[in-house]
C-alpha cells in the first residue's frame, strides 16, 4: 500500500472509532435524561398521592351522629 493510501485508511479508521465513541456518549446522555425525567414524574406522583391521602384522611375520621 502506498503511504498516501495507508494514511487515508488510518484516518478513516480513526474517524470511525471517534464516531462510535460519540454515538455511545449520546446514547448515555439520552438515557440519563430519560432517567431524570422519570424520577421527576415519580416524585410528582408521590407528592400528589400524599396530598390526596391528606385530603381524604379527615373525611375518614368523620362519623355522623
Output mean pLDDT.
88
Main structural class:
mainly alpha
Quaternary status of these chains? single chain
Helix content, binned percent: over 70%
Would you give an account of this structure?
This protein has one domain (1-56). It has one helix and no strands. It has one helix spanning 3-61. The termini are far apart. Helices cover 91% and strands 0% of the residues. By secondary structure, the chain is mainly alpha-helical.
List the helices and strands and how they pair.
Elements: H1 3-61
Could you list some keywords that capture this structure?
65 residues, mainly alpha, 91% helix, 0% strand, rod-shaped
Concise account of the structure shown:
The protein is rod-shaped and about 100 Å long. With 65 residues, it is mostly helical.
